[in-house]
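Figure 3 (text version): structure tokens given as input.
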């Protein structure tokens, strides 16, 4: 449904709901790193990017549609489009394939990109096109590229972007390979969870570029030195996204937490450590480290991506705690993967 198709009452509701959402995002502190993003969120109408979405309920999902003949359903659709929650937008056999992320988390990620005027940005995971529209508002269409593996997703993203008046470059392809024909990029932002950071992204970045991506239920911010090296810390905030598709890597098996103390089992921060060190630390080793180091938050961890190896670490890249990332050919060479000092 385009903006012109909204009746006058619903158009007014959408405008007031968007203003309320903006106030909620501002109150959350998501714009702290770059308050200029508030203007983009005020200008870009989210409802154009979610003409329908699914709401979980008893027995499955309920579809909310902006074209429903029922005026109460259309009102619900508009109100839901401006709630500060993620919205499921594409399902296949009950499995979530694509969604519109929680707006306050989108705002935080965009602010943490530390964008400068004229920067060229690659978005991994086109989704509904809403994030690409926000980037286009800020940087102009010519500086924004978004890629997704699914042609149905990229086609609907193009349509939504066109309805909203934005025309960034939308590419159908494997995001893990980047978009070399549009390189180089000053920023790469992923809106899907990674198992590891693809090295080809580094080669498509300018020196000093920033890569911001969900990994291990956190957000890693990597500064690119050159095509063979990037490094950075995780942000403090948790982040849960649909996994990046296109990889042959199987989904990880659930980890048994037998013998792990209750405080660790119930902690989101401990589960982050488990996800980050999967295959390198067993849960008992991880719990010993986590307790000894004072239950560290995400911001104390980081990642280094080198020409041959990629590793995660606590506090310092060359410190005592370092673990190889999935897909890495070895450890950092510092103190051995998974070592817990006495």
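Below: residues designed for each position.
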């Amino acid at each position: 449904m385009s903006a012109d198709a909204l009746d006058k009452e619903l158009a007014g509701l959408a405008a007031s709901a968007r203003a309320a959402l903006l106030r909620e995002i501002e109150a959350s502190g998501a714009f702290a790193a770059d308050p200029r993003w508030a203007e983009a969120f005020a200008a870009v109408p989210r409802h154009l990017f979610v003409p329908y979405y699914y709401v979980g309920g008893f027995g499955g999902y309920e579809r909310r549609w902006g074209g429903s003949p029922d005026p109460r359903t259309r009102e619900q659709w508009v109100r839901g489009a401006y709630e500060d929650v993620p919205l499921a937008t594409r399902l296949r056999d009950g499995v979530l394939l694509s969604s519109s992320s929680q707006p306050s988390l989108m705002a935080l990620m965009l602010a943490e990109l530390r964008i400068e005027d004229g920067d060229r940005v690659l978005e991994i995971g086109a989704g509904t096109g809403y994030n690409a529209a926000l980037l286009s508002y800020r940087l102009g269409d010519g500086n924004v590229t978004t890629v997704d593996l699914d042609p149905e997703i990229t086609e609907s993203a193009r349509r939504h972007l066109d309805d909203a008046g934005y025309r960034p470059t939308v590419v159908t392809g494997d995001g893990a390979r980047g978009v070399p024909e549009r390189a180089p990029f000053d920023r790469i932002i992923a809106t899907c969870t990674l198992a590891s950071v693809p090295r080809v992204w580094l080669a498509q970045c300018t020196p000093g570029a920033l890569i911001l991506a969900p990994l291990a239920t956190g957000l890693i911010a990597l500064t690119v030195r050159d095509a063979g090296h990037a490094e950075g810390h995780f942000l403090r905030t948790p982040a849960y996204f649909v996994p990046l598709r296109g990889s042959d890597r199987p989904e990880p098996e659930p980890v048994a937490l037998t013998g792990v103390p209750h405080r660790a089992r119930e902690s989101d921060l401990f589960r982050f450590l488990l996800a980050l060190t999967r295959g390198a630390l067993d849960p008992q080793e991880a719990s010993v480290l986590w307790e000894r180091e004072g239950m560290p938050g995400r911001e104390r961890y980081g990642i280094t991506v080198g020409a041959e190896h990629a590793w995660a670490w606590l506090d310092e890249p060359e410190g005592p705690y370092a673990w190889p990332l999935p897909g890495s050919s070895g450890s950092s060479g510092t103190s051995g993967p998974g070592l817990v000092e006495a």
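Confidence is low (pLDDT under 50) at residues 329-342.
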